[in-house]
Design brief:
- The chain is α+β, with helices and mostly antiparallel strands.
- It has 2 domains: about 80 residues; about 80 residues, 434 Repressor (Amino-terminal Domain), CATH 1.10.260.
- The protein contains 5 helices and 6 strands, in the order E-E-E-E-E-E-H-H-H-H-H.
- It has a 3-stranded antiparallel beta sheet. A 3-stranded antiparallel beta sheet has the order 4-5-6.
- A hairpin with a 4-residue loop joins strand 1 and strand 2.
- The radius of gyration is 21 Å and the shape is elongated.
């Protein structure tokens, strides 16, 4: 996801990041690696970084130090729903790949049991493909003799 604009809001002590999908705040203090802007080391410049493929921004401090932030850090901090879905798909895919490697079932059997085609199976186990559905991944994990629990808990008690 490309960044369309980024500005510094010193009053909120946060970067304001805009993309085609929305606008988010990212606090100075969450920027990694350090240094982050402070009262003694002011922010001089912030810009969309072409070296990051316009998927991140770089900031310069008065001391000459600089730092960069990728859009994934902004989306993760703000728990953007689309990003969180993609993260869930990636984690389920990695688990499926690990289970396939240790499974006694052949690939043909793993493909046959949930009723998928070989092409669909290989799309399911591609960690970079985010067009797949969670329900097909759950079906694949069930064939691999896995139980998947989705846990919902109150953040205050976690």
């Amino acid at each position: 996801m490309r960044i369309t604009s980024v500005t510094a809001n010193n009053r909120k002590r946060a970067f304001e990041v805009r993309t085609r999908r929305g606008e988010w705040l990212f606090p100075y203090g969450k920027a990694e690696p350090t240094p982050t802007p402070t009262a003694s080391d002011r922010l001089v410049e912030v810009f969309i970084d072409p070296e990051l493929g316009r998927e991140g921004f770089t900031y310069l401090l008065a001391s000459g130090a600089e730092g960069s932030v990728h859009i994934d850090h902004v989306l993760d901090y703000n728990e953007e729903p689309g990003y969180m879905r993609d993260l869930l798909l990636h984690n389920l895919t990695v688990q499926a790949l690990e289970r396939i490697e240790t499974s006694a079932l052949s690939r043909r059997e793993i493909i046959r049991r949930p009723g998928t085609s070989p092409a669909q199976f290989y799309r399911l186990i591609d960690p970079t493909d985010y067009r797949k559905s969670v329900d097909k991944l759950l079906a694949l994990l069930q064939v691999l003799d896995c139980e998947v629990d989705l846990v919902v808990r109150d953040r205050r008690s976690a």
